[in-house]
Specification:
elongated; 3 strands; mainly alpha
Length: 190
């Protein structure tokens, strides 16, 4: 009886150790995939073509920003990706001011998580669309701050908006995880 209890306890301990090792392995695989995609994004950012593509996104964000600001009654002129109030340049949207940059982090988080490829693609494209939309709101807010509160521009641009974009990306990832979990529960199990 005591031998049987010791054997059962030993079996439970082996199961717990095995489960712990599996969880560590899954964590390491996730970290490796995440780091690999972030590294790949960093390498892509060294290519001149990468910045020319992001330059198009910057012009698009500036165009949408110009349209939204005009719709709320502000007189805004746009030349390329620079927004003017009268003759004064207020905001220049560059490739570094892109929602695509934070999109690499979202892509890394989604790709690293074990799920179906179609769920990863759907989650990334939907998330990137939201990030680009939030980036347009960022452009609008930075223009407004630059026009009316220029002393606050640098801190809002360099401290608050980067944190907010990361929070948005984390929330998008969390929502995607919930969606993936719900989809996996709906799929018939064999």
């Amino acid at each position: 009886s005591a031998v049987k209890k010791t054997f059962q306890a030993s079996k439970v301990n082996r199961s717990l150790v095995s489960a712990g090792l599996e969880a560590k392995r899954e964590g390491l695989v996730y970290a490796a995939k995440f780091s690999g995609v972030v590294l790949l994004g960093g390498l892509f950012s060294l290519l001149p073509e990468y910045h020319s593509v992001l330059g198009w996104e910057a012009i698009g964000a500036a165009r949408w920003g110009e349209w939204i600001l005009g719709a709320v009654g502000m007189h805004v002129e746009r030349v390329g990706a620079t927004l003017f109030r009268g003759d004064v340049p207020i905001l220049e949207v560059t490739s570094r001011c892109s929602g695509v940059t934070i999109g690499w982090l979202l892509l890394a988080a989604i790709f690293a998580y074990p799920s179906a490829w179609w769920a990863q693609i759907t989650g990334f494209l939907a998330g990137l669309g939201v990030l680009l939309g939030v980036n347009v709101l960022r452009v609008v807010s930075l223009f407004w701050v630059g026009a009316f509160f220029p002393g606050a521009f640098d801190s809002i641009h360099e401290q608050y908006w980067p944190v907010l974009l990361i929070v948005v990306a984390v929330c998008l990832f969390a929502l995607w995880l919930i969606w993936v979990q719900e989809m996996s529960q709906r799929e018939p199990r064999e």
